[in-house]
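Ops channel
N.P.: pipeline sanity check, posting one input/output pair.
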């Protein structure tokens, strides 16, 4: 369905958990997060009810994310059941890739269409530093595995942070010469732990694009959040996601469901609806969703406020 600004909302992003097996410096506090009780977190059956209602309103694409969703038992079943919801055409996940190599086959068989894997450095030591202890080799093997089984296009999310990984931009771009992957450089957002790094660490996409004149612009789908580029003769692509320097609110097609059962019509707005209250009645659930979609805010003000208005963190909302 369309919101009141005429944007067609056909994409639901779901954070399945706020827990994670890593502690990235721009996302989670070092000590981790307060562990929620089972009652506080949506169950898979509840999520499927919401997915069903969203599909009735025209949602076609689902992205499951977190926290880290692959730490959850039964994720393959959730994907399989989601793939059977009438109207759902595309199921993607965003993962840190640590547990993906072993799960990739099963996830594909269950109906997963595509994966986004987060990777902010190509160096083993720096990966340990950024993620506070992760093993990069597991992520690199997961990327190869997804390519080999055709879980493609594999998109690699790289948050750029000045002074931390800006010395590796050309290495990431060069990866696309040989690998059929899309490297997506993401502007650091001042949300959660990102707020602490933002002032010194923010780098705009424009700054990077200006440094690499050999990147050739490609035509980009209207609802795509990334502007796409390519190196001559490369197998992959390079994307830039610029929520601050070139925000994409006018073509935003998504709403979000947090792991605690609230619907957020915008990542950076404080507006939320507790959808748990409507789970026992499909008619009420659908009409509550309809109202949230219709009233989606026109835009965020992150670039002016230098701070997200969201009351939730990235790991609760899903990136
Ligand atoms: N754990 C999974 C992962 O890391 O891919 C999924 C959840 S994570 C919150 C989703 C995405 O949000 C990741 O690509 C991550 O890099 C990004 N992210 C987290 N905090 C961010 C911030 N402050 N600015 C920009 N991107 C951020
Ligand atoms: Fe975990 Fe993803 Fe946040 Fe890193 S970015 S701490 S992997 S949720």
């Amino acid at each position: 369905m369309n919101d009141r600004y005429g944007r067609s909302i056909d994409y639901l992003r779901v954070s399945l958990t706020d827990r994670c097996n890593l502690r990235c410096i721009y996302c989670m506090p070092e000590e981790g997060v307060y562990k929620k009780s089972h009652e506080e977190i949506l169950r898979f059956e509840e999520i499927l009810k919401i997915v069903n209602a969203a599909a009735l309103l025209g949602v076609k694409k689902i992205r499951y994310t977190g926290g880290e969703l692959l730490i959850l038992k039964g994720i393959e079943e959730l994907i399989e059941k989601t793939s059977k919801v009438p109207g759902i055409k595309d199921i993607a996940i965003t993962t840190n890739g640590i547990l993906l190599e072993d799960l990739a086959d099963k996830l594909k068989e269950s109906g997963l269409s595509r994966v986004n894997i987060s990777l902010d450095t190509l160096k083993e030591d720096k990966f340990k530093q950024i993620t506070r202890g992760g093993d990069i080799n597991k992520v690199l093997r997961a990327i190869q595995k997804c390519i080999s089984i055709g879980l493609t296009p594999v998109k690699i999310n790289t948050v750029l942070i000045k002074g931390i990984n800006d010395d590796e931009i050309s290495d990431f771009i060069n990866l696309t010469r040989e690998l059929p992957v899309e490297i997506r450089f993401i502007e650091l957002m001042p949300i959660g732990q990102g707020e602490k790094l933002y002032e010194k660490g923010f780098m705009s996409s424009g700054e990077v694009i200006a440094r690499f004149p050999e990147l050739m612009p490609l035509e980009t789908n209207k609802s795509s959040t990334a502007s796409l580029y390519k190196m001559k003769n490369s197998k992959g692509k390079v994307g830039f996601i610029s929520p601050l320097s070139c925000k994409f609110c006018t073509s935003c097609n998504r709403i979000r469901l947090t792991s605690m059962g609230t619907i957020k019509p915008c990542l950076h707005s404080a507006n939320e609806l507790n959808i748990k209250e409507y789970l026992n009645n499909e008619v009420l659930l659908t009409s509550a969703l309809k109202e949230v979609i219709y009233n989606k805010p026109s835009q965020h003000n992150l670039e002016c406020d230098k701070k997200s208005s969201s009351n939730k963190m990235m790991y609760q909302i899903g990136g």
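N.P.: looks fine end to end. The mean pLDDT is 92.
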